[in-house]
Every structure is written in C-alpha cells, then in structure tokens.
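EI: anyone free to look at a 240-residue chain?
SC: sure, send it
EI:
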Amino acid sequence: MKVLSVVIPLFNEEGNIEILYRELRDVFASLKIFSAYEIVMVNDGSRDDSLAIIKRLASLDNHVKIISFTRNFGHEAATFAGLCHATGDAVVLIDADRQDPADLILEFEKEFANGYHVVFGQRTKRLNESWVKRLTSRLFYPIFKWITGVDMPRNVGDFCLLSRKAVDQIKQFPERAIFVRGLIYWLGLPKKAVPFVRRGRGAGTSKYNYAKLLIFALENIVSFSTMPIYFIIFLALFLI
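SC: here you go
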C-alpha cells in the first residue's frame, strides 16, 4: 500500500483552508497508485482562526495531522517541518492560498509512476499578478541559476511531488537558512515538469511585499553560492 503525504504550510489562511481540504479529498478519491493519504498542515503562527479550523478538521478526519508553531517562523521553516513529519512514499507540497490547482496532483502521480523523483508544476501563466511581480519572478530564476549553478527551472514554485528518496535527502541538509525549492533541484534527481496556469489567490492577501521578496531572493542566492561574498570582498579591497 503506497501512501501519499500532502504538506500544507499556512499562515493566516482561514478563508482558504476548508475549500482546499475539500479539493484534496476529491483528488484523493481519484488517485490510482496511492491507496492511502495524509494531510500535514503546518500552522506557521497564524493570528486568525486558521489553527482552530485545522484542529476541527483533524477531529473529524484522522488523516489530518497538525504541526503548530508558537510564532511565525516563515514559509521555508514551515515547509521543512512538514517534510520532516510526512511519512508517505511520496510527498506533495502545496500552498494554502489555492493558487495551485489541487487536481494537478493526479498528473504528478502519473509522472511519479514513470520513475521521476521530482514532479513539479511549471507556470505557463500567472493570473491576477502585477507586472512588477511577474518581472521580478522572471529575473530571479536566470540570475539564481547563473550565480549558484543550480539547475532550477523557470516559473516554478513549491508546488511539486517528491519521492521518499528526495525527501530523505533534503532532510539530511544541516542548513539553518532553508530554501526548500533550491534544495529540491540541487539534488539532481530525475525531474519532470507539468505545465499549468496559476490561478489568483482564493481569499486573503499575499504575505509577501516587494521588500520581503527582494530580501528572500538575496538570502537564497547567498545561501547557495559564495560568489556574492567574494564580490563584496574584492569590491571592498578595490575601494580601499
């Protein structure tokens, strides 16, 4: 019996949780390879009713597991915690904002059956996003690849399926500043893209403003490459 784990990091997503839960239940009923499932919901210090909602779901459905942080530690920490507690033969990462269509998991399952260890959703279009957000996202991926050498595909997020082998390897990394998306593609395991149109947010507002996105990008680039550090050192020596 193969088990599929779905990890959902969430922060102040009270308007999306129950709808996403119902969408996932519909997907689970159509799975071919996986005959059992679990949903690992990671509450990243939400200040709304998110925790109360997932506790109620867990009381009604024993497939739902809860991890709850005492404060907001960030999306990457929540995602990594979910991976560490997921027990399935494969793990799907999906955000709680419902921008990524849950039914794409059925396509992930097909490619997993074909032997791929990483099956990821690749956005062909991004609905209801500003031109600034689209431009910065378009610039980040080639810059990240050029500086770090990590073959991370363009227009991808955290929405993906990982084999147990991939999850176990990610869990061995000692980094404190985790960039899960970068680690996934750093592994070099066989990967397959599944194209999709990213929807607009279901409810609520994005937790990232442009300043946070810029800091997030810089931190992740530095965590994967020493090139920026050497650049700063040589620039300082030149100025001196």
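EI: Residues 107 and 141 are 24 Å apart (CA to CA).
SC: 👍
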